[in-house]
């Protein structure tokens, strides 16, 4: 195994972990907001995929990664607007609608992509990197930690901002009330519906951004079904994180590392069969669920539509 | 003196100024008029008691004032101005705070967080500000709360204080306390009464909803009685203070349980009771907790062919009694004898086999499986038993035959025995349940609210069938919240309140006098003649 632990291996592992972790982190942070407010957002996979598709398309047409991210956010929010209308306003079943949205977005993006590009998969130019002077030149961690696209640092900043909002303002408490006992928030003068709609829209925006990252930075192209379950991993992270954004980050890094290990091992030319290597991230998901599954503490009213007066 | 008939004229404000008024308010729900043309004035400095039975419209009135429902007709006025309260926040903005019967606090939040719940999300919680205000409340009302405690860990009494404190922090002018004493100990209720007086001394108005008459008399300045959605009468402060407790209760009972002049006394069933005791219960107790009332030394007996009515306001232990008799609820002490044998330790199915049957009031959840066919529901309690199952194999043909027979005998209106029972009307589901429980050797049948939620025609049919069951020599326990039904069918009526039997009264057909006597027991009085503790 010593032969594996070369600088090249570690560097590519770390780089891969971060690249793979960012979309999961964004999705997980978004899902966390929804779940706190009492909406189980299973449509997040579809929101990510729509974000990836629209994000890629905008970046491809405008040659601007940043406009691409904006497009991704809007793409995710388009899907989440449907979810907000059906599940919060009309009170339909969140699981059914969520699965429907995911499947619908999978089909729709694949179809649109086919119409547009047929069987070709055009690539975006390589994204700009921000080199932090001095730090980027450090061995192993240098280019993997300090040579990333600015959106990576924005995602981390977003996590910190969310953590502060939850702690320092009434937001965390208000969300918890909506998720634990919406009737209590309602009679206390808060608006359960508006809060839940806002939370779902935020989830859509974050998932869409995560999807756009996946397409524009991670892969540099759009492939149908390219999210490959990243949104669902985000749901798992949000459930295990007990409302804490930092835990979402830690979880995302673990999954990111597992995902990138597959690439890193292949780069290093290990003689472990590829099938086993590609199983790793999913084995990691299962392992974490087995170890920490019972730690998940979900809001009492999660998944239940709120209707005033129906007690 | 207030008379039930001219309640509207007694509404002149005698305390402070009118803070909130209801003007000819009517609210309908599918099939019922919950509040029917009610006008009320809530005055500053008054504890205004709203009394009434279940379904009298109290909760709907609370919902309207709290902004959860809007009236179909009539309107509200706040400080003399016509106002719409379209949402809870509109109600709070109008200075009305409501402490609901069931806690409206988030159990996982801290006390402080619950106090400021509803504040804009972008603000940060001003702990110092809340602490300063709490100090004021401590000084003025002796209200002190552990701000950092997790709300769910506190007692119900403390949780109620949080809700009252929250109302005061919001500078509410009107405080609604919905069934606020129902979860409290007698001492806790006393403290709450004193608190209400403190609040009104500071110029607030308190609306206190209860069904306990002595609380109404001791805590209230003004008493309004609701009956079937209408304002049945009112005792104004000057009238109330001139009356002794007994006199006041007498008047209120007349308003609550007296017959309105336009309907006749129900015709009483001819008794079919024999001398043979089939069921006797001695000192039966069950465990209670915050959510479920325990039974407290229930003692009664039932003769073959007799209908024993259990009267009481809903939620006073009726369901627990029925379940304890059926063997569905563990008993902590006491004895149940059935047909001469002690059955206290027997299982549900063994009791059923011996002929003790129970017809639940929860027809859809507990009584039937909605997605199953009518036929399967008729044998739901005989799964695995011959003749419908032989050596563990289901015999669908026999079950279908049995079901068709039951459908015919009980005149169930259903397309076929294979129709899922959930598609039938309440009345027809009730018939299937009745048929199921009367199959075989039924010796005692416990009916829990058998006519609840049925339409008039089905109510009459069900009552006739109850009489027929008793005429066959079966002992019947009839739990009902409908006094007319009990007086029409029962040979004797036991009144249950707070998990205790407050009296067992012979149904002597004396109509009005009997009705008032039962009403008094239902409202928490003890019957001196029949109860020895």
Give the N-terminus to C-terminus distance of chain B in angstroms.
37 Å
Q: From the helix content, strand content and strand pairing of chain B, which structural class follows?
A: alpha/beta
Strand content of chain A: under 5%
**Helix share bin of chain A:** over 70%
- CATH architecture name of the largest domain in chain B: 3-Layer(aba) Sandwich
Going by helix content, strand content and strand pairing, the class of chain A is: mainly alpha
Following the backbone from N to C, one meets helices and strands of chain A in this order, namely HHHHHHHHHHHH
Total helices of chain B: the number is 18
Number of domains of chain B: 3
The main sheet of chain A comes to: none
- Major sheet size, sense and barrel closure of chain B: 6 strands, mixed
Provide the CATH top-level class of the largest domain in chain B. Answer: Alpha Beta
Query: Main interface pair?
Result: A-B, 25 and 31 residues
What Rg of chain B is obtained from the alpha carbons, in whole angstroms? Answer: 26 Å
Number of DSSP strands of chain B?
A: 22
Mean pLDDT of chain B comes to 85
Instruction: Predict the CATH topology of chain A.
Output: ABC transporter involved in vitamin B12 uptake, BtuC
Low-confidence stretches of chain B: 1-14
Distance between the termini of chain A: 61 Å
Q: State the domain count of chain A.
A: 1
What are the low-pLDDT stretches of chain A, counting only 5+ consecutive residues below 50?
A: none
């Amino acid at each position: 195994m010593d032969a594996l632990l070369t600088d090249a291996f570690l560097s590519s592992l770390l780089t891969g972990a971060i690249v793979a972790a960012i979309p999961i982190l964004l999705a997980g942070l978004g899902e966390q907001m929804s779940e706190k407010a009492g909406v189980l957002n299973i449509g997040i996979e579809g929101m990510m995929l729509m974000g990836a598709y629209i994000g890629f398309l905008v970046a491809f047409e405008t040659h601007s990664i940043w406009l691409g991210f904006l497009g991704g956010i809007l793409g995710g929010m388009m899907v989440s607007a449907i979810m907000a209308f059906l599940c919060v306003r009309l009170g339909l079943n969140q699981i059914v609608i969520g699965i429907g949205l995911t499947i619908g977005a999978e089909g729709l993006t694949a179809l649109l992509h086919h119409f547009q590009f047929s069987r070709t998969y055009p690539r975006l130019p390589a994204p700009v990197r921000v080199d932090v002077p001095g730090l980027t030149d450090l061995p192993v961690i240098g280019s993997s930690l300090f040579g990333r696209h600015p959106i990576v640092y924005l995602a981390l900043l977003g996590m910190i901002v969310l953590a502060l909002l939850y702690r320092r303002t009434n937001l965390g408490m208000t969300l918890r009330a909506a998720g634990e006992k919406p009737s209590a928030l309602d009679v206390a003068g808060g608006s359960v519906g508006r809060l839940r709609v806002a939370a779902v829209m935020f989830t859509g925006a974050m998932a869409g951004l995560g999807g756009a990252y996946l397409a524009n930075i991670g892969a540099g192209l759009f492939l149908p079904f390219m999210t490959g379950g990243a949104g669902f991993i985000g749901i798992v992270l949000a459930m295990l994180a007990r409302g804490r954004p930092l835990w979402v980050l830690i979880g995302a890094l673990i999954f990111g590392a597992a995902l990138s290990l597959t690439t890193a091992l292949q780069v290093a030319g290990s003689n472990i069969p590829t099938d086993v290597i590609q199983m790793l991230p999913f084995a990691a998901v299962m392992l974490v669920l087995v170890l920490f599954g019972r730690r998940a503490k979900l809001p009492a009213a999660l998944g239940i539509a709120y209707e005033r007066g129906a007690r | 003196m207030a008379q039930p008939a001219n309640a509207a004229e007694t509404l002149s404000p005698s305390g402070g100024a009118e803070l909130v008024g209801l003007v000819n308010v009517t609210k309908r729900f599918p099939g019922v008029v919950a509040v029917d043309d009610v006008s009320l004035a809530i005055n500053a400095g008054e504890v205004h008691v709203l009394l009434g039975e279940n379904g009298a419209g109290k909760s709907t009135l609370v919902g309207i004032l709290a902004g959860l429902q809007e009236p179909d007709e009539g309107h509200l006025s706040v400080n003399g101005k016509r106002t719409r309260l379209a949402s809870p926040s509109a109600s709070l903005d109008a200075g009305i705070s409501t402490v609901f019967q069931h806690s409206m606090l988030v159990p996982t939040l801290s006390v402080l967080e619950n106090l400021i719940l509803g504040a804009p999300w972008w603000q940060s919680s001003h702990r110092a500000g809340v602490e300063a205000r709490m100090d004021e409340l401590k000084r003025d009302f002796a209200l002190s709360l552990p701000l950092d405690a997790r709300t769910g860990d506190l007692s119900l009494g403390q949780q109620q204080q949080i809700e009252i404190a929250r109302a005061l922090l919001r500078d509410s002018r009107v405080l609604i306390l919905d069934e606020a004493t129902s979860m409290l100990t007698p001492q806790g209720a006393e403290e709450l009464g004193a608190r209400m007086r403190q609040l009104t001394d500071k110029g607030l108005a308190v609306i206190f909803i209860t069904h306990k008459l002595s609380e109404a008399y001791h805590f209230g300045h003004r008493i309004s009685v609701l009956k079937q959605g209408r304002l049945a009468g009112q005792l104004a402060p000057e009238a109330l203070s001139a009356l002794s407790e007994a006199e006041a209760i007498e008047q209120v009972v007349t308003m609550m349980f007296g017959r309105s002049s336009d309907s006749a006394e129900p015709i009483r069933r001819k008794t079919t009771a024999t001398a043979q005791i089939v069921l006797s219960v001695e000192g039966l107790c069950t465990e209670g907790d915050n959510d479920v009332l325990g039974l407290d030394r229930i003692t009664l007996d039932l003769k073959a062919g007799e209908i024993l009515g259990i009267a009481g306001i809903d939620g006073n232990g009726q369901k627990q009694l029925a379940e304890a008799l059926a063997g569905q609820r563990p008993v902590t002490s006491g004895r149940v004898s059935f047909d001469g044998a002690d059955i206290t330790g027997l299982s549900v199915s063994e009791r059923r086999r011996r002929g003790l049957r129970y017809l639940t009031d929860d027809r859809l959840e507990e009584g039937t499986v909605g997605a199953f066919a009518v036929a399967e529901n008729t044998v739901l309690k005989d799964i695995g038993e011959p003749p419908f199952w032989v050596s563990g194999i289901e015999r669908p043909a026999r079950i279908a035959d049995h079901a068709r027979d039951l459908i015919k005998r009980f005149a169930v209106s259903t397309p076929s025995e294979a129709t899922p029972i959930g598609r039938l009307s309440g009345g027809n589901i009730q018939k299937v349940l009745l048929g199921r429980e009367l199959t075989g050797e039924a010796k005692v049948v416990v009916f829990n609210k058998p006519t609840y939620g049925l339409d008039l025609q089905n109510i009459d049919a069900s009552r006739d069938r109850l009489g027929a069951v008793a005429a066959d020599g079966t002992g019947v326990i009839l739990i009902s919240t409908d006094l007319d039904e009990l007086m029409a069918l029962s040979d004797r009526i036991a009144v249950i309140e707070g998990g205790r039997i407050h009296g067992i009264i012979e149904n002597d057909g004396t109509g009005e006098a009997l009705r008032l006597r039962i009403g008094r027991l239902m409202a928490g009085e003890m019957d001196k003649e029949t109860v020895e503790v």
